[in-house]
Amino acid sequence: MKKKRLNLNVVLVEPNGPLNVGSIARLCSNFDVNELRIVSPKCDIFSLEAKKMALKGYRYIDNCKIFNSIEQAIFDCDLVIATFGRIDLSNDIECESPEDISKWISSFVEINNLGILFGREDRGLSNNELLFAHKILNIKTSQNYPSLNLSHAVSIILYELNKSSKNNDKKDLQVLDLASSKQIYESFKEIEEMLIKTGYLLEHTANSKISKFKKFLLKAKTSSHDINVLRGIVHQINWFLNNSKGK
Fold first, then answer.
1. Torsions phi, psi for 137 (to 5 deg)
2. Reported pTM
3. In this protein, which residues make up the domain named tRNA/rRNA methyltransferase SpoU type (predicted)?
4. Looking at the chain, which terminus has fewer C-beta neighbours within 10 angstroms, N or C?
């Protein structure tokens, strides 16, 4: 069966186990992942034990890209999915199953660059880091022992996403037109600065309030065009504020 275009990038945030990194590199090879990206590794990802575990996936370790921040690692991605494995599931964090995410992804004609964010082995991704994603997925496990090894979680998710890359005969496939993580991030940096300047936000509480706006925007499935309109409005307000001082 012919596959759709789906450039998939696995992004590991601060991994601290070389064996996990090696296992994930092997999985990248199993599922034809485009690139392995690592944010601030806390272990020697180029160690012999990592490469031994990787087997034929060693090239993903040799060629992996290392970043200092999540922003740098995902800002060329059209679509970002984050994984959520913490037990303390907040009421305002909406998670979907890997199966549902896979079906959603398969509804698009193509995705040029898809990033999958995996958090730290011990504490996953923070609530603020989850806001870089368009959708959040969670793997349901036993309540008696919910903890899942990082590489095992990667294997389940890559298996499900592999299904979405299979060509689907439906004629109603849609074109991906969501605002990218980079567009949303940069827009809200400007919005935050503007609202602090006008006195609506205080610097020490700005982040938590802006996070609520981001959640609303992500839920609304805002398009690239819509975010550009919003950004244009913010630019104009900032111009006015900067040029009306002293008048």
1. -115, 155
2. 0.86
3. 8-159
4. C
Q: Which of 117, 135, 164 is the last residue of a domain?
A: 164
Give me the domain span that covers residue 52.
6-164
172 falls within a domain: no
- Sequence letter at residue 152: H
Cβ distance 71 to 132 under 8 Å? yes
Residue 84 and residue 125 in one domain: yes
Q: Looking at residue 140, which CATH number applies to its domain?
A: 3.40.1280.10
Domain boundary among the residues 108, 132, 164 is at 164
User: CB within 8 A of 147, min separation 6: which ones?
Assistant: 85, 141
Cβ neighbourhood burial of 21 (10 Å; 0-12, 13-18, 19+): buried
Euclidean distance between CA atoms 35 and 115, whole angstroms: 9
pLDDT, tens only, 47-99: 999 999 999 999 999 999 999 999 999 999 999 999 987 655 555 678 899 99
